[in-house]
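Entry for the shared binder. Reason: the reviewer on the internal report wants the predicted structure included alongside the sequence.
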Amino acid sequence: MSKGKLAVNILLTVVSIAFPLIWLFSPQMHTLSQILPYIMAILWGLKAMQTVRFQRFFAIFMACLLVFISVTRNLDTMYWYPVIISGVMLFFFGSSLFSAQSLIERLARLQTPELPPQAVRYTRKVTQVWCGFFVFNIAVTSHLIVQEQYQYWALYSGVISYILMGMLFVGEWGVRKIVMAKNNS
C-alpha cells in the first residue's frame, strides 16, 4: 500500500471515528461541524481515486452524499453516516456468504492458502457473526436517531460501537487460537 493511500485511509478512519463526538459538541465547535462534511467528502474523493470496482463506486457515492449534505446544509443527514458504513460492511460480509468463499475465508487464505475444511466452516461462521454485529449496529444507531437521542448516538457511534468491534475482533482471535490448537492435536 502506498504512503498516500495509507494516509487517506488513516485520516478517513480517524475522522469517521471522531465525527460523532465532534457532532455531540457541535454547539461549541459549530465551525468544525459545518466543515466536517467537506473534509470527509474530500477524503472519500481521494479514496475513490485510489480504489477500483465497487470500492470506487462506494467512495464516489459517499463523497457525493457528503457534498450534498454540505451544500444543502442538511446536517441532520450526517447522523446516518454510521448506518451507511455499517450497511456497506453488512453488504460485503453478507454477500460473501453466497459465494464460494466468505470474506473471512478470503482474508484467512492470505495467511494460509490451504485451509482445511473445518477452517473453512469456521470462517463462514465468523462471517455470519460479523453480519450479526453489523445488523445490531444498524439497529441500535437507527433507533437512537429516530428517538432523537443524539447524545447517546454520539456515545454509541463514536465510542461503544468501536469497543464492541474491538471486543469481537479480540474474542474471535482468542477463539480461533483455541480452535486451531484443538484441530492440530
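Summary line for the report: The mean pLDDT is 85.
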